[in-house]
Amino acid sequence: MAVAVAVTAGTAFAALPVSPAAADSGQSIPQVLVDNLNHRVYVDVGNHLSYVEVFDLDGNRVGTIDNLYRSTGMALSPDGGTLYIAQSAGGYIAAVSTTTLETTAAYDLGGGAIPEHLAFAGGRLWFGYRAFEGNGIGSLDVGASTPTVNRQPQAPWDDTAPNVLADPADPNKLIVGSDGGPGALAVFDVSSGTAVQTALTIGILSFTDAAVTADGEDVAVASQGAHAVQLYRLPGLTLEDESYFTDDVPLSVAVAPDGSVAAGSWSYSSTPTVGLSVFGADDSTPRRTYPTPIDEGGLAWSADGSRLYAVSGGGSESGDTDPVLHVLDNPLAATTTIALNPPSAAEAGTPYTVGGELASAAGFAAGQTVHVTRTDAADPDGVALPDAAVNAAGTFSFTDTVTAAGDVSYQLGYDGDRYHQPAQGSTSLTVTRSARTDTTLWLRFEDRAKVGKKLKMQGRLTSALTIPTGATVTITRTDGTGPGPALVGTRKVAADGTFQITDVPFVAGPAVYTVSYAGDAAYNGTTVSSTVQVAP
Is the peptide bond preceding residue 78 cis, with omega within 30 degrees of 0? Predict the structure, then answer.
């Protein structure tokens, strides 16, 4: 049986009296609605306060909608211009301008009906209600000059006012579900303005909250009996195999545009171990959990799925508490760690490679990097090195060379993204001096230098150990004959490291003679330069 009631919506709002049938003394359950069109978040505070709180999308409180008592559901008009708020105290639905935050109209449902949930579908505002005549669903054609309320009492919702949900993929489909008690879920075609049932499933273990996926393919149900969020396939409401199990019984659920699932847990008499669990669409276990308890209707995702809005507080055995809005950025970001693998040995002047790995429950896409900073005696405040690229497996490496022996440390940072939390890591190693033996050269002129005359020089290659066998030195001269050094020749050093050099300078002025030893696998190279004044 359907009941139709004509109501008049005035431009000025006067508070409606609370009739005995409509009075509601139920517990306070705060709920949240995200308004992406106006960049707002609305929090109704149930029976606890006489207003609805208004926040910006960053969670800053920007105002209130006053003179609203026992709010029990909200819905935004398709154009974003009006917020409709169900009022269990008085049995009416308030229309509020999202521009002024002032109430512009009130729609009495009649028959002592108490509205508890709202949703737009088929061009009408639908509501779940409870009343002496029986619980059911109803609608209001808020766009008409004389809006008409249509109530439809229905058997599956005997215990409580049912929850009504819009289907994002089908504007003419309405999903109706139980709000506690024996579980039932139904699909209605509302294209005609009257709800025509097209599917029904009963016997669902007790649940209080549900959400339709963005693609319109599933209804996610927070089932207390199953201890999980379960998925029912539309349009026939077939239970799917996939479930999202939570540590504590779930009472609230919200589904992100990409299919990610948030499930809230709450208890009137105790605090759950885990208050909020967040799952990726394909996850079998929560990717992240939070301790804050979240009750029915207390979860909503941002339009792009990068934020989760959760409202806590309300009624409990220990008394009512003010609602608190939690803005969770990147709630799907899994814990990420950095592990580093420095080389077991490193020498000054020799390149070495440090390996590393990012570890996370979520995979890594191409283009991820980690920042690298080196700190040592030469750079005690740290010096930035090039970022290290991360591959799909999460591994990375970087190569570095330090010139001096000593302790060297590396600090690495990963910025994180939507699916990964930021991470930091560090490692250190001791860089030793080269294992090769140091060498030294000296050079001495035997006589005065003169243009066209032989100039003799004596030199010696020394080492703390033995002289390198077969060592050869290279001699160059830099003077006025050219811009660069001229090769004088090479000399093989004697067993005692000595060698002789003879040269004929061609121009007067200073001449710089340079002797170099390149070194080998056992000895470090060395160079010496000496200047002589060549007379004309």
Answer: no
And the tokens for 425? 């890591």
- For residue 23, give both structure tokens: 């009075």
Asked if residues 173 and 193 have their Cβ atoms less than 8 Å apart, the reply is no
Cα 70–76–78 angle (5° rounding)? 160
Phi, psi of 327 (to 5 degrees): -105, 110
H or E, element range at 354: strand 352-360
Q: Give strand pairing partners of 327.
A: 309
Residues 100 and 106: their CA atoms lie apart, in Å, by 16
| 169 CB-near residues (< 8 Å, 6+ apart) | 214, 215, 216, 217
Question: Other CB atoms closer than 10 Å to residue 63's CB: what's the count?
Answer: 14
pLDDT tens digits for range 102-133: 999 999 998 889 999 999 999 999 999 999 88
Measured over the CA atoms of residue 400, residue 402, residue 408 and residue 414, the dihedral's sign is: negative
**Cα(211)–Cα(254) distance, rounded to whole angstroms?**
6
Nearest to 108 by CA among 6, 194, 23: 6
Sheet holding 299-301, edge to edge: 299-301, 307-314, 321-329
Strands 92-97 and 103-108: antiparallel
Would you say 391 and 380 are in contact if contact means Cβ atoms under 8 Å apart?
Answer: no
Residue in this structure with the two tokens 């000399």, named with its chain if needed: 491
Number of neighbouring beta carbons within 10 Å of residue 113? 30
Report the distance separating Cα 146 and Cα 172, nearest Å: 22
- Angle, CA 298 vertex, CA 294 and CA 301 arms, to 5°: 115
In whole angstroms, what is the distance from residue 497 CA to residue 356 CA? 47
Contact 328, 344 (CB under 8 A): no
Q: What is the largest CA-CA distance in the chain?
A: 128
Q: Tokens at residue 327, please? A: 């803005």
CB atoms within 10 A of CB 439: 21
Q: What is the pLDDT of residue 28?
A: 61
Res 17 pLDDT > 80: no
Q: Range with the lowest mean pLDDT among 32-36, 402-406, 473-477?
A: 402-406
